[in-house]
Amino acid sequence: MKLLRLSLLLLLVVKPPNPCQSKRLVGPFSAGPSGRIKGGEEAEVGFAPYQVSLQPIVGYHNCGGAILNENWIITAGHCVENFVPALVNVVTGTNKWAEPGAVYYTAEIHMHCMYDKPYMHNDIALVKLTQNITFNELTQPIALPIRPVQPGEEIVLTGWGADVPYGSALEDLQKLTMGFVPFNECFETFNRTSNMGVGHICTFSREGEGSCHGDSGGPLVSNGRLVGVVNWGRPCGVGLPDVQANVYYYLDWIRSKISGNDKCYY
Ligand SMILES: *[C@@H]1O[C@H](CO)[C@@H](O)[C@H](O)[C@H]1NC(C)=O
Ligand SMILES: *[C@@H]1O[C@H](CO)[C@@H](O)[C@H](O)[C@H]1NC(C)=O
């Protein structure tokens, strides 16, 4: 399994990354001939106003994320693991990560209390900003889910991830509509890998499409609600489902963190 974070980050992390971690994919993978999120297409301006780009240094896209409210961002754990808040700059309000609508700074990083325990599980984190986000047409929060995703529902992935494995981030935000893959079907497809658990949700469209490096931490939205955060997959668009953190499963943890509670829910 590969994680979708860009290798650029390896130069910037505070602690040396562990060898396992570099296998994870950050963000949705994309690598088709028509490529972007592999096999995706350019998103219209304002299509995903909740989308953010996490940048260790402003000007370098690392991961995606989504705005939950005025001062909280959600992303994948592997996107912010080993980072100090000063290396998590949050770019909002733009379809071009290199042309920020605004840049916000991070006050606190909250990894899931069971991040990577077991390996590849609970890959979700919350980032609290130093300042409230100013909302506008291009900058809006995304609602949390109120029920699990049902078979047949469409899920939209957005991200600046590469169109080839380990490729660089694309300039313009891409989108890709995917289907929901029931847990058992996905689990069997991956031969019951221990890297998958109850906190994961799988998505798939077709071979040649999927999340890719740089999409990690980014949002998957269904019926106007955030249902997934890009976790891992086999890069990129090789015909297997992508595996995401299931936001519905983590609702209690998310709500308790945002309200200042430190209880560990999983
Ligand atoms: C920031 O947003 C929160 C939540 O809406 C609000 O309670 C608080 O007053 C805001 N702070 C400032 C400085 O605007
Ligand atoms: C699952 O196992 C089969 C049989 O060994 C193999 O062909 C297939 O590639 C495996 N699937 C994955 C996703 O690794």
Automatic annotation (TrEMBL):
<keyword id="KW-0732">Signal</keyword>
<keyword id="KW-0378">Hydrolase</keyword>
<feature type="domain" description="Peptidase S1">
    <location>
        <begin position="37"/>
        <end position="259"/>
    </location>
</feature>
<dbReference type="InterPro" id="IPR001314">
    <property type="entry name" value="Peptidase_S1A"/>
</dbReference>
<dbReference type="InterPro" id="IPR050430">
    <property type="entry name" value="Peptidase_S1"/>
</dbReference>
<keyword id="KW-1015">Disulfide bond</keyword>
<keyword id="KW-0964">Secreted</keyword>
<feature type="signal peptide">
    <location>
        <begin position="1"/>
        <end position="22"/>
    </location>
</feature>
<dbReference type="GO" id="GO:0016485">
    <property type="term" value="P:protein processing"/>
</dbReference>
<dbReference type="InterPro" id="IPR043504">
    <property type="entry name" value="Peptidase_S1_PA_chymotrypsin"/>
</dbReference>
<dbReference type="GO" id="GO:0005576">
    <property type="term" value="C:extracellular region"/>
</dbReference>
<dbReference type="InterPro" id="IPR001254">
    <property type="entry name" value="Trypsin_dom"/>
</dbReference>
<dbReference type="InterPro" id="IPR009003">
    <property type="entry name" value="Peptidase_S1_PA"/>
</dbReference>
<keyword id="KW-0865">Zymogen</keyword>
<dbReference type="Pfam" id="PF00089">
    <property type="entry name" value="Trypsin"/>
</dbReference>
<dbReference type="GO" id="GO:0004252">
    <property type="term" value="F:serine-type endopeptidase activity"/>
</dbReference>
<comment type="similarity">
    <text>Belongs to the peptidase S1 family.</text>
</comment>
<dbReference type="InterPro" id="IPR018114">
    <property type="entry name" value="TRYPSIN_HIS"/>
</dbReference>
<keyword id="KW-0645">Protease</keyword>
<dbReference type="InterPro" id="IPR033116">
    <property type="entry name" value="TRYPSIN_SER"/>
</dbReference>
<protein>
    <submittedName>
        <fullName>GG22028</fullName>
    </submittedName>
</protein>
<keyword id="KW-0720">Serine protease</keyword>
